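sry for the spam today, last one i promise. struct tokens for design, 118 residues
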């Protein structure tokens, strides 16, 4: 059989398939020919269905592969899938509020809300 070249980009989602890329290409062609036409809407809906199927299969296979594995590895993978590392970022460091450094810890915990009359 002849070889087929498949383009894989580093920023592609892990569930991206060749069929999905083909649908995206056809959707873009339909968009440029007639953005309000039926062909564009058809391919848009087809891509949404394909995306949901591909994501479901990808995550189901990831979890299925970890069923009989060490629980520590399982939780590590679950945390990576849920992006739990980014949730543990200290929110105080992310704030950029003037004079925030001068507040005491009790003042940081209890926000004062100023209500404006209508």
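last one done:
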């Amino acid at each position: 059989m002849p070889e087929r070249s498949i383009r894989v980009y580093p920023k592609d989602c892990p569930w991206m398939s060749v069929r999905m890329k083909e649908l995206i290409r056809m959707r873009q062609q339909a968009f440029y020919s007639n953005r309000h036409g039926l062909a564009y809407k058809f391919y848009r809906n087809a891509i949404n269905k394909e995306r949901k199927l591909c994501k479901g299969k990808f995550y189901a296979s990831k979890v299925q592969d970890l069923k009989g594995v060490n629980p520590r590895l399982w939780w590590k993978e679950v945390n990576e899938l849920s992006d739990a590392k980014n949730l543990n970022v200290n929110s105080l460091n992310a704030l950029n509020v003037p004079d925030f450094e001068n507040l005491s810890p009790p003042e940081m915990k209890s926000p004062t809300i100023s209500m404006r009359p209508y």
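The radius of gyration is 24 Å. ok im logging off now
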